[in-house]
Amino acid sequence: MSRHVLVLNGPNLNLLGTREPQVYGRTTLADIERGLTAEAGRRQARVSFYQSNHEGELVDRIQASAGEAVDFIIVNAGALTHTSIALRDALAAVAVPFIEVHLSNVFRREDFRHRSYLADLAVGIVAGLGPQGYHFALQYALDLDPR
Predict the structure, then answer these.
(1) Which of 6, 17, 94, 121 is buried most, with the most CB atoms less than 10 Å from its CB?
(2) For the chain, how many structural domains are there in total?
(3) Range(s) of the domain holding residue 67
(4) Is 114 one of the annotated active-site residues of the chain?
(5) Which whole number is the average pLDDT over 33-59?
(6) Interior CA angle at 102 toward 65 and 79, to 5°?
């Protein structure tokens, strides 16, 4: 049975590579997606991607994952991590295990970034490891025993 992992990215992550490169680096979201697709292919897994700057669209995508046999979600909700009870509720409702990913170390940044509305529901959090954090999350998701 092939595992299906959904990689969900929130606001402003479409600007990776050009947005504050001193914080987020020069790797683009497309670069990250290419790398994850190749890695999943080597493991006979399926990975799908979704990015939106709109909270409601992200909630809709999370809800849709419940009917798509998604085994795991990797989520970088961007700034919505620190503000969105709606994303938290959607993730709780679908009960698909997930890892929260952040490119930067949010705990070395502004105080408001230290609070995550998703963290206590997450299987784990990867923060501050740049694009490699997505790969660590995918590796974990693919190594995890199926539900």
Answers:
(1) 6
(2) 1
(3) 4-143
(4) no
(5) 97
(6) 80
- For 10, phi then psi, to 5°, come to -95, -160
Q: Quick: pLDDT tens for 76-88.
A: 999 999 889 999 9
Using CA atoms, how far residue 6 sits from 58, 68, 70, 121, in Å, is 12, 10, 7, 17
Residue of 24, 50, 117, 134 with catalytic role: 24
Which one, of 22, 27, 96, 87, lies nearest residue 65 by Cα?
A: 96
Q: How far apart are CA 31 and CA 132, in angstroms?
A: 11
CB within 8 Å of 118: residues ≥ 6 apart? 75, 77, 81, 87, 88, 91, 98, 100
Please tell me which residue in 4, 50, 102, 135 is annotated as part of the active site.
102
Angle at 118 between CA 128 and CA 68, to 5 degrees: 105
Confidence label for 122 from pLDDT (cuts 50, 70 and 90): very high
Q: State the CATH number of the domain containing residue 120.
A: 3.40.50.9100
Q: Is 24 a catalytic residue?
A: yes
Q: Report the predicted TM-score, pTM, of the whole model to 2 decimal places.
A: 0.91
Which residues, including other chains, have CB under 8 Å from residue 83's CB and lie 6 or more apart? 117
